[in-house]
Amino acid sequence: MLSRAFTVTRCLPLAAVFAVASANALEFPLPPPGEDIVGEVQVIQAKYEDTFADLGVANDLGYLEMVVANPGVDPWLPGAGNEIILPTRYILPPGPREGIVINLAEYRLYYYPKGRNVVYTYPLGIGREGWSSPVANARITAKTPNPGWTPPKSIREEHAADGDPLPAYVPPGPDNPLGPYKMGLSVPGYLIHGSNKKFGIGMRVSHGCFRMLNHNVLKLASMVSVGTSVRIINEPYKFGRSGGKVYLEAHAPLDDSGDASVVDKHTAVINALLKNDQFADLRLDWEMLREVVAAEDGLPVEIAQPDQAMVTTEPAI
Description:
This protein is α+β, with helices and mostly antiparallel strands. It has 3 domains: 4-90, Membrane-bound Lytic Murein Transglycosylase D, Chain A, CATH 3.10.350.10; 99-233, L,D-transpeptidase catalytic domain-like, CATH 2.40.440.10; 237-305, no CATH class. 22% of the residues lie in helices and 26% in strands. It is built from 8 helices and 19 strands. The strands form 5 sheets. Strands 1-8-7-6-15-10-11-12-14 form a 9-stranded mixed β-sheet, covered by helices on one side. A hairpin with a 4-residue loop joins strand 6 and strand 7 (108-112). The two termini are 17 Å apart. The relative contact order is 0.16.
């Protein structure tokens, strides 16, 4: 049995292994019908001055997804010459490939522009514990460049209690927490917006709104229109097909009440598979499945071969 780490490395094309980081937005052609995976994992060599926060900004990746994809590497001083994984391969979220789809567990937004066979994807900062972002079907209701910010009473009270009082109004500019653009949602009180801080994208840091890197929010705002659908989901385990194989991409579940047990996580994955008819013909690699769920590193890994006799009895966990 090959280890999960070896399997991931083995699957990297040579072009990806020696890829150079790009500052361009993550734009991918949509896969053909019946396929679900876009992009390729990249591996780069760190420079002395690199940090995960800086590499994330340069490559449209969030801080936490960089950390979990590179276990054991110091995110603030990776070390000159060390290999760093850029987790730029994704299983597309379940459901219709239209409008904006936000997967909270992934800290990531996907945008499917109408009439184009491509998908854009961007990292997000989402609501922290106690201020969770909603799961909902929504739409873009307004677009505002250079927004000012009127902090809600609840946020002003929180800051005052922490000895950090906020003004009643923050004008547009570099100190504005909404950054250079905001987009209103039909879910009252929630926005997609930029930020005056580069750190925190790809983490639970907001009061429920969706924070983006400023160059990302400007790019997204230039493409979407008022009325664009926004589907917000919370799917820590994504399954997809590619090249006749089935993959699992696992993320740490969001749970304000405490971490789920390993058994609970395995049960959630198995239940998700059983509920999906398109995976009814699988011969699952249970050992690999357990490794992927335990790692929670957001990298798609092969877990099954289709069109074989389905294994109906799971080994003991």
